[in-house]
Amino acid sequence: xxxxxxxxxxxxxxxxxxxxxxxxxxxxxxxxxxxxxxxxxxxxxxxxxxxxxxxxxxxxxxxxxxxxxxxxxxxxxxxxxxxxxxxxxxxxxxxxxxxxxxxxxxxxxxxxxxxxxxxxxxxxxxxxxxxxxxxxxxxxxxxxxxxxxxxxxxxxxxxxxxxxxxxxxxxxxxxxxxxxxxxxxxxxxxxxxxxxxxxxxxxxxxxxxxxxxxxxxx
Length: 218
Ligand SMILES: N[C@@H](CCC(=O)N[C@@H](CS)C(=O)NCC(=O)O)C(=O)O
Prior knowledge:
The protein is an alpha+beta fold.
């Protein structure tokens, strides 16, 4: 029997939850290893051996360790190609390239404004930090422009990379979930017909619902 892969970090972290959603889609056994970030455990030498930038998640599968949530997800899909959702990272060069294209769009265009908004609107109040209205306005405008592109794309195709749910859609779940469920900026998504329909579909997957449940436990 193979031992479960290990994910280091709290499920409430967006990057950790991306990896958890992927593991659940792929039906791969995993263990979440707590990292006490308020005590700075992610900056300790032991942790830096796995994640040299001192961020979560870190990931271990047998003797190998990896960091960067999107790279970890690609690895899981390739290594466990025959398990769970087999089409999650495509099954042909073109399908993979199309998924990579939208994964890049998520990482380069969607993530910067959406993670800034998640920090300002969801985490800063919890951490008793002052919000910056200028940063909020600027990132809201940037995200709106990105979502205009998505609206167009999702008018032509059911999901970002084609007609099947893929890693590209999954990668958007963590930040979108905070924006829709914790902040009052959900209209950025729901006011756009195709984006709203897409959000309803991707967020109602069992894999994501399980991650949201994991985020509720302390
Ligand atoms: N690009 C990285 C981002 C990781 C990241 O930003 N992690 C945050 C939590 S979501 C973190 O560890 N923040 C603490 C810090 O930077 O000190 C990934 O996708 O894995």
